[in-house]
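anyone else get weird line breaks when pasting these?? whatever heres mine. first is seq + tokens for prot A
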Amino acid sequence: MGIVNGSLQVGKKDSIFFSANPTLVLLDGQLIYNETTGDLFIGDGITQLSSLTAINGGVGAGVWGSITGTLSNQTDLQTALNTKVNKGTLTTNTIPKATASDTIGNSSITDDGTIVTFNNDIKLNGASKRIYTPNEIGYFKATNTNIGFEFIGTTNTAGISSNETQNSFYHDAQNSFDAPLHDFNNSVRLSSLTASTVPYIDASNNIVSSSVTPTQLGYLDATSSIQTQLNAKLSSTKERLLFIGGFAAINPADGLTYYSGEVGASVATTTQSSYKFQFNENCTITRAVIMLRQVTNASNESVSFYLRASGSTDNTITTTLDMNSIGASTNKVFVYSGLNISVTAGTDYENKMLCPTWATNPTSVVAVIKYYGY
């Protein structure tokens, strides 16, 4: 059996210490915290250190995904990313690219020098460089700078005379074009679209403007699925461990208030501000877990616990904790959910325990206090 070390300070130790002292026996109620694994142990005066079971189950670290690119530029996208925006309705290989000059540049589409057919609606004749209508009543004819429609013969089934200006499309031709097209010199100008926006194909297969700008679209330069990366991130509203603290064995007296801090602090004290601690970020406490151990079982008067801020403001955890329900020489975990305590980074906090006047006082009381939230 290891040697009971009465002089070992209650506090944090790393795994090297645990490996070097496997036969060490802690005093009854003595706490030791493995800062490498996040495990907290309490001695019983008998069991060796290597055989003790952690009373907190360890504090694991969250696993976060990664999004490449310049995230600091994504100010307009942050809200959408937090709500995991669904993908758009564009069909594969139909995403155009707009530029600041309000033109759609060349795409990667090529032809083989003969005929390219689009759903049997448009026929290109490479030799004449014309685009025929499905029923071949006419064709679109392009020059270096203009594009227009020209009829074959004198038949006018679309309601357009054959002598109409050839560098324009007309609203009543096929009800497909709502504005003139021009400057057909390695680009197409769509005057009905909003400048500097990304167009898309709507439910009626029309090209329309979206509210997304090319700059915003450029922020989506991730090298893998954004949805997969978001799924790998922890939710900002999922509870996580925010604090762990407590105190070593004390014999609480009637009507006194005891203050304590983080794991590694000494026994609780009646002197305020002795064991202050801070949170490293603004967050909200939603749940408190208090483990209490005692040797002499207390009577059933109510004990109160608070999170005290700045030495003056008490945030209530509970005012009805019954230590008589613990029993003698054993421990019990009390869980308090539904809390809504906002804490601020840089503010001093301390745990506060307010004792009643007991009929039977508890002895050798040890506490572990944990706060969860987001």
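and prot B, same format (seq, then tokens)
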Amino acid sequence: MGWQADITSVVCELDSESCPIHKRALISIPRQQGKTWLARVLVLATEEYLPAGSLIGYTAQSRMSAAARVVEAGTAFVRAGIPGVKVLRGIGGERIEFENGTNVIPISPSDTAGAGYTFDFLIVDELWAVSEMAMGAILPAVIARPTAQIIAISTMGDLDSTVMNRWVAQGRDGDIAYWEWSIPEGRDIFDEDEWWEAMPSLGQSVEVDAIRTQRAGLDPRMFEQMFANRVVTTTQASAIPPEWWADTEGPPEAIPAELVLGIDVGRHGEVSTPAIVGAWTSGGETPLPHLELIDWREGAEGAWLIKRVEDLIGRFRIRAISLDPSGPAVAYVNQIRAMCERRGIVFRAVTRGELVGGVELLYSSLRDRALTHGAAGPFDEAAAAAVRKEMGDRWIWSRKSPVSLSPLFAATLAIEAWSKLQTRPRVAIY
């Protein structure tokens, strides 16, 4: 297709010394537009001008995925009748061998990616999934030779995709060779007229009906990332449906004599945002757990947090205090633990599994309208900005957000601690 040929001609531009003009390039494009074929074309085109015996690397979201891409590409080359191509398929030894001794091998997108290799050309498939540590391992493997290039082909990612987002910013500023097809912010991602501008292969290798099927089957946030090719931000699609949050908002409740506390420390830019959420059993007709944002301070330091916790311990019967030692609150674990031990309060430094369980409990309780919560600006903003961070087949809240999520993390810790203290929990984890 024409757009693939245009990109290939630019990537393969050489200077007077037969070295590539563009050392880095990024092609940001929606799914199903032919990026796999583009990668194959680039391998063939660069193999023509690279020195004999060169090494071409291919990395993807996993080594297994990269190995599959290499074997598939080599098979396509053989079927196309390209002379002298050999494909090795053995697990761990997958590669393409060209007649002039140039090899194409898969590499893992890990913190040891590229170790022991020096690449003349490297393709990064789905840059959005490459971590900073992996990129730190990849780049040294492509800077030792004057002919070296690194070309990334990827859809946009999310706020956690820091490598991809930085390359996009550099491309838009003209610092690297860059192509982007996407639906601009402010445009309707479900408007089919917009698809024709954002998808260069629409009507050629992919039909409109195929995109309609994806639209019908995908979560809107996933469709926005994959087919509108936009960075998905927390303000666009919260993990907590707004109607769940609105339906569970309860009347204001005074802090009771007995409660548990969840404590978290977030960041809003460079500013610390500690939050304290209390959980107790509501006094309504149908007793339910109630969550209340007791305090939240933007810019407050650790001394304020410790003093505020001491104040609450002195005024109320705090049955348990819970925090996440894997998060920013780790700096206050020892001080708060010591306070709890002096007062006979249960102190809970939750494990990652317990934090995940707390997220599931809070999420299912909101879904089933099986809790109530107070109204507070930072609390509402955190719920509206909640985004999932996948952990295998489970997930937690992502801390990457344009607003502080410390009230939401504190609420998760509070309801998880509250549930542990109930002899007969009224809220089930699904």
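btw re prot B: DSSP finds 14 helices and 16 strands in the chain. The CA atoms of residues 222 and 232 lie 8 Å apart.
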